[in-house]
């Protein structure tokens, strides 16, 4: 199947000499949620801005729905909705009028039924006659999403969509994103909330210093780079680890009453059986055992460290 977005060897270097993107290539499938992760200044916003036609690349090509963003920009741009980081709304305009106006910018005629559908899906219908200056920060972000959806785009870019939004509203917005994906919209989001990417994304891309370090299905990424930790509660404290145990990935905590062991859960031999046998042989009793899977944050930091070392 032809991807809805095809990025080939894209680069961007500013006049100051700063290289914001360095030979980025990426295909994005119709109907997937792709999360782009990276520290500040990694190139996430530059990449989105180029695809949306807001920044001119130095090299490479981008096609959206088969349309080149530079030579066939009108058709490409019509397929895209963008929710930017910054909240920029006309303070005295009513919510419904904001969405109507944006729809008109794309040459689309009035469609009050669709307007109501969008506003209801974002819990904005009751606020349709409110002026945007009267809204909370979270509601203003919902208005930005409604504006981005006004012309029925096939692709939606969400650049830090839940920044500054409280936890309850953030989870409500996650459900909105899932509903959009279920309707066939392709979603590309950047976020600093790693649980957001871990909870929603089909694939995760990691970008740093303008380079796309990798793009993998979430489950595959967690399986390849995620590690597990075994935590053993001991029946008596240990003053120190037995000689050589620190080399096995073991560490002491909780005043010597807790033993932690990092291991690769995919390995044929995890070493857990050997560890428990050693504890028994030394007369060290075990009160409880628990395991913890590495989080996406652990994986993300590991990838950045690996990328910096290259």
UniProtKB/TrEMBL annotation:
It comes from the Bacteria. PROSITE patterns: ABC_TRANSPORTER_1, ABC_TRANSPORTER_2. SUPFAM superfamilies: P-loop containing nucleoside triphosphate hydrolases. Residues 5-234 form the ABC transporter domain. InterPro entries: AAA+_ATPase, ABC_transporter-like_ATP-bd, ABC_transporter-like_CS, ABC_transporter_ATP-binding, P-loop_NTPase. Pfam families: ABC_tran. CDD domains: ABC_DR_subfamily_A (cd03230). The keyword Coiled coil does not apply. PANTHER family: ABC TRANSPORTER ATP-BINDING PROTEIN. This is Multidrug ABC transporter ATP-binding protein. It comes from Paracoccus contaminans.
């Amino acid at each position: 199947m032809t991807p809805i977005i095809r990025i080939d060897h894209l680069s961007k270097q500013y006049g100051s000499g700063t290289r914001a993107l360095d030979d980025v290539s990426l295909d994005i499938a119709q109907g997937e949620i792709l999360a782009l992760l990276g520290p500040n200044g990694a190139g996430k916003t530059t990449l989105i801005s180029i695809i949306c036609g807001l920044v001119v690349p130095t090299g490479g090509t981008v096609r959206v729905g088969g349309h080149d963003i530079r030579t066939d920009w009108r058709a490409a741009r019509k397929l895209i909705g963008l929710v930017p980081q910054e909240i920029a709304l006309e303070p005295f305009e009513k919510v419904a009028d904001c969405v109507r106006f944006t729809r008109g910018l794309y040459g689309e005629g009035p469609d009050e039924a669709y307007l109501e559908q969008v506003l209801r899906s974002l819990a904005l219908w009751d606020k349709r006659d409110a002026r945007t200056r009267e809204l909370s920060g979270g509601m203003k972000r919902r208005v930005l999403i409604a504006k981005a959806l006004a012309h029925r785009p096939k692709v939606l870019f969400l650049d830090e969509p839940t920044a500054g939004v409280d936890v309850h509203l953030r989870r409500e917005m996650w459900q909105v994103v899932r509903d959009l994906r279920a309707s066939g919209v392709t979603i590309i989001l950047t976020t600093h909330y790693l649980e957001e990417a871990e909870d929603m994304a089909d694939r995760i891309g990691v970008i740093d210093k303008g380079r796309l370090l990798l793009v993998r299905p979430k489950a595959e990424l967690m399986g390849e780079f995620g590690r597990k930790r075994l935590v053993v509660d001991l029946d008596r404290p240990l003053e120190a680890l037995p000689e050589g145990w620190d080399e096995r990935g073991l560490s002491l905590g909780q005043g010597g009453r807790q033993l932690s062991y990092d291991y690769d859960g995919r390995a044929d031999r995890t070493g857990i059986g050997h560890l428990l046998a050693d504890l028994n042989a030394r007369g060290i009793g075990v009160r409880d055992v628990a395991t913890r899977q590495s989080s996406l944050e652990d994986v993300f930091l590991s990838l950045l460290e690996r990328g910096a070392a290259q």
